[in-house]
């Protein structure tokens, strides 16, 4: 089995899987404005194995695994790996769907979500609920590994109601996943409070003590590339996964901080909209885009007014018209 995780220059830099965020459009945009060598791994949105296993639901759930031709070509040119992230709680379904994804798609790896803290997901016994079901979690990892030649990694948290890093990470290491990404919060915290990087450092120490070469990535409250480099050294992790930090700055993955001006921000807003229209027009809800517009429409005179107008937009053409009114120099690619 080829494990790309072992061959990336450290620190490994990854963009976290995020629902209604890391679709093929946003991944392509982020990859295109990232410096070569500063972004190594991208992930799909969360993909439910139960949904993929349902004849009627598979088509819609599989939208999370769509990779456009332009994204695929760009990632190939930049040497960026793309990993499908899946979740559920039945080892046999993981085995079946992991096998199908391996055979029907062209991903570089499979990642198992054992960290999502959303309450209705946890009530189902999935994602971070598996932290308290270590035997089942191990069965899921082993079943997935058995079904594919791709590296199978795990993204998780430090506990549910309290930190249980030593116990939980030790149990994960027994299954020898290709990599472990550890978010420094417990499930109960959701996204509140500070991520505990000392707990992440404990995971690194456990890995070292096991004499395994499994990369450990840290996740939580990292807001700049410089901070990523600093944390990788300070806490001994092999890499950093960025989540909400990308909303502060889509140009995150550049070694020298980018300070885009109004024209560049609006150009990326248009490009993101065009990519979404090309990939999802008539399929996904246009309003999904609105969560992104505040990323680009900020930091310049008139930004607040533009954001308000964008929130009232109902179509792609509404957006294009608003931006042209703001800045006639913004370039529009062919639609």
Automatic annotation (TrEMBL):
Residue stretches in coiled coil: none
Domain (DUS-like FMN-binding): residue spans on this chain: 15-319
Molecular-function GO terms, alphabetical: flavin adenine dinucleotide binding; tRNA binding; tRNA dihydrouridine synthase activity
InterPro entries listed in its UniProt record: Aldolase_TIM, DUS-like_FMN-bd, DUS_fam, tRNA-dHydroUridine_Synthase_C
Highest taxon of source: Bacteria
Cofactor(s) essential for the protein: FMN
Keyword check for Magnesium: no
Pfam families: Dus (PF01207)
This protein's UniProt keywords: Flavoprotein, FMN, NADP, Nucleotide-binding, Oxidoreductase, RNA-binding, tRNA processing, tRNA-binding
Name listed for the protein in its UniProt record: tRNA-dihydrouridine synthase
Organism: Sunxiuqinia dokdonensis
Highest classification ranks of the organism: Bacteria, Pseudomonadati, Bacteroidota, Bacteroidia, Marinilabiliales
